[in-house]
Amino acid sequence: MPLVAVRRAVRESVSGLPREFWWLWTSTLVNRLGAFVATFMALYLTLDRGYSASYAGLVASLHGLGGVVSSLGGGVMADRLGRRPTLLIAQASTAVSVALLGYVQHPAAIAAVAFLVGATSNASRPAVQAMMADIVRPEDRVRAFSLNYWAINLGFAVSSMAAGFIAEVSYRAGFLIEAGMTMTCAILVFLKLPESRPESGTAGVGKAGRTDAVGLGTVVRDGRFMGVVGLSFLVALIFQQGSVGLPVAMGEAGFTPADYGLAIAVNGVLIVVLQIPVTRFIEHRDPRRLLVVSSVLAGYGFGLTAFAGSIGAFALTVCVWTLAEIVNAPTQTGVVVRLSPAQGRGRYQGMYTMSWSVAALVAPLMSGVVIDRWGAEWLWGLCAVIGTVAGVGYGVLMRRMPVTETETETETDGVEEVAERPVAPGESGVGTPARAEARTTAPEAKAGTGGQD
């Protein structure tokens, strides 16, 4: 491809997004560049502190459990307190708890602080996604989510390499560096990002003029959305096997940790290289088809691992399911926003985030039991089955999904709300979130509209 064409493609990929998005994107990148703890926690506990592998596994589970608990809590905070206060509280608390983790000595204290780190670090995710949906125009959201996902993976790739060198010098230095970079994110949010939460009363106004709050009960009763959450859990179970099932299976097959590192590095490299061009190809395509294809591709990508017998073959399977990941991640997040009322984006994003957090807890248990009892081949076959089930589920569940963002309607207590109106070019900033237009309709008129059930 000529250099001029490459420059034009890059310019088109990043143009048209508001300044506030880029500050949020920068905060995400800085946060992930400093994500050392998750990388070397097990090594820190077993090699530096001398604890058993079982204890290290317990601490990792508590860290994940903290993320599960805080997913919903962070979503509620984002809707009640606002996106900006939630980010400030979560990131400042993460910085303090990560620094503390580098100093605590007692096993119980380490476990408790690890739980706290998992809770505080995960609490910011619903607010980030909700703020991104607030400040970016509907037609640009898939591209924005893709760029954010790209920043996450770029930062993680760099931090993973840096973690090894830092650990050789001092594990505590790694904790303190992560704490400092997380606090830098909080400072960026404080200085550069105004609140983006839609004004109270712009959506959900009922017949009597009252504001219908979007609570967790509203989210749970949203059948279509909870179906998407369930399917995202299945897809997350598959993708988690790249970090929990794959290394175990390769180890049992006689491959070294370095071999696994070489194979899995393909995942990060492909995401960094292909995320933006692939997003340009998919951003205006039918999300239903994209989710069906990516789910099946993920399942069968891992399924092919059963036939891998060399590092090159393992790397090839990683290429297949990484392509599915590149398509699935921004598409799924965009669908979540499309199904979320503006006043409840935090709670909806929190429930979606929780599906991935729960999958991170379940996936290690699933892979361990299946590999121990039946062998790795059965695990990869199960991944193919789960991917097929998820693909069929998306095909059925999203059959009446609106084609465009502005067609999405949510219903609350007999009130049908248009979730977004078209945003004029000058209204893309934080101070001008798209407002929902509410109109009362008779229950009979809702049938067959294609709105959210």
From TrEMBL:
Pfam families assigned to the protein according to its UniProt record, in alphabetical order: MFS_1
Record's compositionally biased regions (Low complexity): 432-445
Region (Disordered): 405-453
Statement: the UniProt record of this protein carries the keyword tRNA processing: no
Listed GO MF terms: transmembrane transporter activity
SUPFAM superfamilies on file: MFS general substrate transporter
Endpoints of the signal sequence: none
Cellular localization per UniProt: Cell membrane
Transmembrane intervals: 21-47, 53-74, 149-167, 225-248, 260-278, 351-371, 377-397
Primary localisation category: membrane
Membrane topology: Multi-pass membrane protein
Domain (Major facilitator superfamily (MFS) profile) ranges: 20-405
Acidic residues bias spans: 406-417
Cellular component GO terms, alphabetical: plasma membrane
Alphabetical UniProt keywords: Cell membrane, Membrane, Transmembrane, Transmembrane helix, Transport
Annotated PROSITE patterns: MFS, SUGAR_TRANSPORT_1
Name of the protein in question: MFS transporter
Organism of derivation: Streptomyces phaeolivaceus
